[in-house]
Amino acid sequence: ARPPGRTIARISATAIAIAALILLVRAAAVIPDPDAAPASESAATAWRGWSPAEAAQVRSSGQPLFIDFTAAWCLSCQVNERVVLNAAAVRDAFRDHGVAKMKADWTRRDPAITGALTELERSSVPVYALYPGGEGDPVLLPSVLTQEIVLEALETYVPVQR
């Protein structure tokens, strides 16, 4: 049997790690993002809420679509949004390529989003799906993003709008 002191130390260390993670997530939520989209960002380039009907409508119009399957409790999601998806270069590239952007917020485990994730053969967030236009299959980006990954996907799969 283990000495009781060792078990208490492990429980204490785990509790401290969890508390530190919670504090980190809360701090990230209140720190202003230097690359945050300006308040004047147009409706055409702003993130919209996801729904199956709206996503289908955008896709049937032929417009490229990027869906960010995310959740408030997902640390990777929050970091990717702050560091990559809200970066000025990525926002500009979405605009230049004429890409509609939608957030599918799975914070409360929305069944419609669960279904969409299942269709993409995924069971958790983050998931980043780029639909180049039309009715084809999406390009799924990795769960850990860099600006270069997003910019390269846009250059490879979505022509620049002139």
**Rounded radius of gyration (Å):** 19 Å
What percent of residues adopt helix (DSSP H or I)? 40-55%
Count the beta strands. 5
Q: Average pLDDT, to the nearest integer?
A: 87
Compose a concise summary of this entry.
With 162 residues, the chain is an alpha/beta fold. 47% of the residues lie in helices and 14% in strands.
Would you give an account of this structure?
The protein has 162 residues and is an alpha/beta fold. 47% of the residues lie in helices and 14% in strands. The protein has a five-stranded mixed beta sheet with strand order 1-3-2-4-5, sandwiched between helices. The longest helix has 27 residues, at 4-30.
What's the structural blueprint in terms of helices and strands?
Layout: H1 4-30, E1 47-49, H2 52-60, E2 65-70, H3 75-85, H4 88-96, E3 100-105, H5 111-119, E4 127-131, E5 139-141, H6 147-157
Parallel strand pairs: 1-3, 2-3
Antiparallel strand pairs: 2-4, 4-5
Helix pairs in contact: 4-6
